[in-house]
Specification:
Shape: flat
Distance between the termini: 70 Å
Radius of gyration: 24 Å
Structural class: mainly alpha
Strand order of the largest sheet: 1-2
Strand content: under 5%
Number of helices: 3
Helix content: over 70%
C-alpha cells in the first residue's frame, strides 16, 4: 500500500475478526477451565506439528532439516511422556474411588450409595 493511497475501512472484516478473536478467547478459557494450562500448552505443540505437516504437504518446496526433525522428535517424546503421566494419574484416581475414599487417618472408608 502506497503512502498516498487512502486506507479503506471495511466494518464487515473488522466484525468477523473480532468475532473470531472472541471465539478463540472463549475456547481457550474453556479448555483451561476443564483441563490445565499445561494441557493447553501441550495442545499448542500438537497444533504446531499439524501446521508444519500441512505446510510441508501443501508447499512442496518446504524443506525440513535434520535439526528440525530432531526438534520435533523431542517434542513428540515430551507429549508422549506427558500423556503417559496424565493417564497414570487418572487410573490411580479411579482406583482410589473404586476402593473407597481415603480419610486423614489413612483408613479406607467405603463409599455408600
Amino acid at each position: 500500500m502506497a503512502l498516498n493511497e487512502k486506507w479503506r475501512f471495511d466494518p464487515v472484516v473488522l466484525a468477523l475478526n473480532a468475532l473470531c478473536t472472541f471465539a478463540l478467547n472463549v475456547s481457550v478459557f474453556l479448555v483451561i477451565s476443564y483441563t490445565s494450562a499445561l494441557t493447553f500448552r501441550v495442545a499448542g505443540v500438537v497444533r504446531d506439528w499439524l501446521v508444519v505437516l500441512v505446510s510441508v504437504y501443501l508447499f512442496v518446496d518446504t524443506k525440513l532439516t535434520l535439526m528440525n526433525m530432531v526438534g520435533y522428535g523431542v517434542a513428540v517424546a515430551g507429549v508422549v511422556a506427558y500423556h503417559k503421566i496424565k493417564l497414570k494419574e487418572v487410573v490411580e484416581k479411579a482406583m482410589e474411588l473404586q476402593q473407597g475414599v481415603r480419610n486423614p487417618s489413612g483408613y479406607n472408608v467405603p463409599i455408600s450409595a
